[in-house]
Amino acid sequence: MDIRQYLTPTMITFEALFKSTFSLEKNEKFWNTWQRVWVKGEWESVHRVWQAGIEMALGRVGKV
Description:
Blueprint: H1 3-21, H2 28-40, H3 43-63
Helix pairs in contact: 2-3
């Protein structure tokens, strides 16, 4: 079984949360990187991008 099948529910949640939290215009580079590594199945890079997204969110929470 392809790992993509296991990660898809997490990806859907990540995308929804990211879009509701951050501007895609202001984070275009991040979003394009995310799309590229997901489509290519670069799973270590997917993990790094998810970690970066979490750090961005935590930084935003700290500003509230």
